[in-house]
Write a structure and sequence with these properties.
about 100 residues, mainly alpha, globular
Length: about 100
Amino acid sequence: MKETMPGEDQMIKGQQELAAGLKDIFAVLNNWLTTVVVNIEPGDTLWHIAEKQLGNGQRWREIYIMNLDNIWKSQDQHHGTQGPDMIYSGNTVRILAI
């Protein structure tokens, strides 16, 4: 079993709650804002997609949070671990067109 740092479980739970709340906000905003659908190609990462589509790889979290359900469903189908570094070609992500 992996050792955790004191408070790590609470931190992870807080991050998950924040992501869920932000996902709800993005769902509401999606009704008013235009989104672009990007096909994930072999070798793509969220950083690479954010860099190409948003001009800054550090904005990968926006894509991850907005597509959390889709990414996790794809990870379950591929029996992969859940996390932002596990995206699969053939899947798509939505990005807010700003």
